[in-house]
Amino acid sequence: MENYIKVKLPLYVKISLVLISIALIFVGLELGAGLMVPLCFSFLFALLLHPLCVKLESWRFPRVLAIFICLVTIIIVLGIILYFITSQILSFGEDLPGLQAKFTELLNDLHQYVSKTFGINKSNQLNYLRRSASTVMASSGAMVTNMLAYTTNTFADLGLMPVFIFFFLYYRSFFKQFLNKLFISTPNQNITEIMYKIQNVVKNYIMGLLLVMAIIAALNTVGLLILGIEYALFFGALAALLNIVPYLGIIIGSVFPIMMALLTKDSIWYAVGVAGVFTIVQLLEGNFITPSIVGSKVSVNPLAAIIALIIGGILWGPSGMILSIPFTAIAKVILDNIEPLEPFGFLLGEPPVPADKNPQGDFINDFKKEVKETITQETVTQSPL
C-alpha cells in the first residue's frame, strides 16, 4: 500500500496558486475565443432544443432525423428574424436622402444657435468640425477593419454552430457517461439532477428572455406609434433585440429612435418623449416584467450580473456580454450542488427576504389566517352538535 505525504501549504501560497489559476483561465478563455464562443452558443441552443429532440425520438424518429428537424426549425426562426431586420433596413435606406437633408438643416440651425449664444462665427465652427472629422477619419480605418473582422468571425461562428449543436445532441448520452466517469465519487443520480437543473435554468432563461423581448417590443412600438415616430415597429423590435445585453441594450436601442425624432419632427419634445417612453419601459422591464416572467428561476443578483457582463465584455466582446448571464446562472446551479462551494452559489443569488420584511408575505399569511378562521366559524355554526 502506497504512502502519501500530506503537505500543508501556507495560506499565502494557496491564495497565490488560486489567483494564478484564475489568471491562466482568463488568458485561455481570451485566446480561445474563436472556438469557445461558438461552442458556448451551441451548448445553449442544444440545451434549448433537447426537449424537442427527445420528443421527436419518442415518436420513433431516428436521432439523426430528429436533430435535423430541430436544426431546420431554429434556422427558419432565425431566418424570419433576419429577413424582418433586413427588409426594415432596406426600407430605411430609401428615406436616407431625405434624412440627410433634414440633418443638414438641423446642423445649420445648430450653427446659428451657437453663433448667437456663444459668439462663435460659422467659419470657426466649420474649422473645428473639420479638425474633429480628420481625427475621426484617422481612427475610422482601424474601426472599420475591426468591424469587418468581427462580422467575418460572426458569420464563421454561425457556420460552425449547426455542426456543434448536432454533435452536442447526438453524443449527449456519451457526454453523460463521461461526466459519470469524471466524477466517479459522485452518485450518478446527483449528476443527472444537476444536468436537469442546468437544462431547466437555460430553458427558462431563454424562453423567458424571448417573451420579455416580445413584450418590450410591443410596448416600445406602441409608445413610438403614439408619438408618430417613423419606423416605430423596427425601432421597437431593435431595442427589444438589444435587450439581450442586460442593462446596456435598452440604452443603446433608444439612441436610434431619439435621433429619428430629432431629424423628422419639428419639436425637440418628441425626442424627449421617446426618451421618456424607453425610460418607462425600462422601469417596467426591470421591476415587473422580467421578475414576473423569469422570476427566481434564474436568480442572479444585479451585482453578480454586472460583474459577469464586464468580464464577458472584456473577454469576448458583445458575444461575451450575451453569454455572461446564462453561464453565470449555470455556474450558480453547479456551485449550489457542490457542498464546499455552496457559499459561492449563495453569493451569486438573490439575498433572502425575511418574512417580517416581506409585506406581500404578511398580506398572504393574514389572508390565509382570515379564510381559515371564517371556515372554522362556519363549520362550528353549521355543525349539528
UniProtKB/TrEMBL annotation:
Name of the protein this chain belongs to: AI-2E family transporter
Pfam families the UniProt entry points to: AI-2E_transport
GO biological process: one example: transmembrane transport
Organism the protein comes from: Rhodocytophaga rosea
Principal location: membrane
Alphabetically ordered keywords of this record: Cell membrane, Membrane, Transmembrane, Transmembrane helix, Transport
UniProt key word ATP-binding: no
Coiled-coil features, chain-numbered ranges: none
Transmembrane segments: 12-29, 35-52, 64-85, 147-171, 205-227, 233-256, 268-284, 304-325
Family per record: Belongs to the autoinducer-2 exporter (AI-2E) (TC 2.A.86) family.
GO cellular component: plasma membrane
Topology of this chain in the membrane: Multi-pass membrane protein
Compartments, as annotated in UniProt: Cell membrane
